[in-house]
Amino acid sequence: MPAGGRLLLVSDPDSAASTLLRVLAGLTRADRGRIHIAGSSDADGWGRRVAYLGPNPGLHTWMTPLEVMRLAGDLLGLPATERARRSERAVAWARIPVGALARPMSRGGVALQQRVALAAALIGDPEVLLLDEPLRALDADERRRLLLIPGRRRTILLASRYPASEIGLAAHVVFLRGGRVELIAPIPDLEAAGLPLSHRGIEAMAATRAESAGHGQRRAPKPA
Amino acid sequence: MNQTGVVAWLAVKELWISFRLLALLTAYVGVGALVALVPAPGPTALARLAVGLAVATIVGAGIAAGSLGAERALGRAGWLVTRSITRGTLLVGWFIALAGISLVGLAAAVSLGWLAASTVASPLEPGPFAIVVVGVAATSLAAVAIGLLLGSLMGPMRATVAAIAVGLVVGAAAFALLPATIVPLTALSELQALDRPVAAGVQGAGIGLAITAVALVLARVALGRVDL
């Protein structure tokens, strides 16, 4: 996948795309194979270049958003001034209410925790963002706005069980079935084929592509 | 603060907020207070202290198992791992936090126990008592490490129950079957009757630290293979 790409991962079963992102993030062990991200296959170096945002924020809810941002910045080894600058920018992007910044997150509900988790993921200005069903506690419009994360060189992988809700967030769609990639296609190709950005539409395109590839192979002349 | 320090600090705050820190300290200090407040001859007080510390040690194992299991189940361990914290650092940070709290509680308990057990009629030698207490401390560390091993493998509830069950079985077997020279808690209960209490304390401490090391290595291996 080239740098700067925005990929929507859809799978059958639904959990496979999430599992792939968890493997990439180092949360789940791969049975076999090698992972190469951001020019490195050394997972220890990914922390500063790769960020993961899952369905569960995974934050200590007794912490305040400011404490989380300070901790995230410290773990990335950011100098205090740089940490403050990036923290301010990430908090503004995630639209964390000013009044909630110094209060424990347990008073703000899951939506606030997900905003804080997004801000904490962005503080490192990661090259690669792994988004696994993120920000589902937010309303659809707000979620879309927050996920249109700027950065021309930023690579985004977005795993989703509801592809129709991800229109405009990715340029390509990847369909996984049985642990294999069945389809990689630009999303406009689906629209051009009159197919919706849904499980059914993606499966239909995968079937069409597989069929035409099968025809191509049968028609190919045998080597001399 | 380095990464291990950050994890240990987070662990202590999490234990404090969830009242587990208070429960662990109460288990140890409560034993000492009980022994100090209920009058008894020296040997009886020591036996009560040993049994109480065994219970507190099992409580420590249960809290360690449940805490690490909860960190995994709630995704907090995963959040740290995706921010350059290695799984080994996570384990060591939690071990330092739980071991520190256990040792503070133990120090308070044995101080109170000393006041109760060392009477004018049967004074306790401070040297042998201190060495045997070091062995007891090593036993507490081993219990915490075994708890973390179980917490690496299971969810919070199952890990807690398993740690308490393992603690009860191993504790009962050790009291009933093994000689006092290799079980520090038994050595503590029979301190005034032991021929060579210093040797028993040193031997018990060595065994406890060895079990701690093995359990931590196994926990690290287990933590490397499970989902966070």
Low-confidence stretches of chain A: none
Question: What value does the Rg of chain B take, in angstroms?
Answer: 18 Å
What is the average of the pLDDT values of chain A?
Answer: 86
The overall average pLDDT of chain B, rounded, is: 92
Describe this protein's structure:
The complex is a heterodimer of chains A (about 220) and B (about 230). Chain A has about 220 residues and is α/β, with parallel strands linked by helices. Chain A has 2 domains: about 150 residues, Rossmann fold (3-Layer(aba) Sandwich); about 70 residues, no CATH class. Chain A has 7 helices and 6 strands, in the order βαβαααβαβββαα. In chain A, α2 crosses α3, α2 runs parallel beside α4 and α3 packs across α4. Chain A is globular, with a radius of gyration of 20 Å. Chain B has one domain. Chain B has 9 helices and no strands. In chain B, about 80% of the residues lie in helices and about 0% in strands. The radius of gyration of chain B is 18 Å and the shape is elongated. At the A-B interface, β2 and α2 of A face α1 and α4 of B.
TL;DR of this structure?
Chain A has helices spanning 15-25, 65-75, 80-93, 109-122, 140-147, 187-192, 199-219; strands at residues 6-12, 50-53, 128-132, 155-159, 172-177, 180-186. Chain A is α/β, with parallel strands linked by helices. In chain A, helix 2 (65-75) crosses helix 3.
Helix-strand layout with pairing:
The complex is a heterodimer of chains A (about 220) and B (about 230).
Chain A lengths: L5 E7 L2 H11 L24 E4 L11 H11 L4 H14 L15 H14 L5 E5 L7 H8 L7 E5 L12 E6 L2 E7 H6 L6 H21 L5
Parallel strand pairs in A: 1-4, 1-5, 2-3, 3-4
Antiparallel strand pairs in A: 5-6
Helix pairs in contact in A: 2-3, 2-4, 3-4
Chain B lengths: L2 H15 L2 H18 L4 H32 L2 H6 L5 H31 L8 H28 L2 H22 L6 H6 L7 H29 L3
Helix pairs in contact in B: 1-5, 2-3, 2-5, 3-5, 3-6, 3-7, 5-6, 5-9, 6-7, 6-9
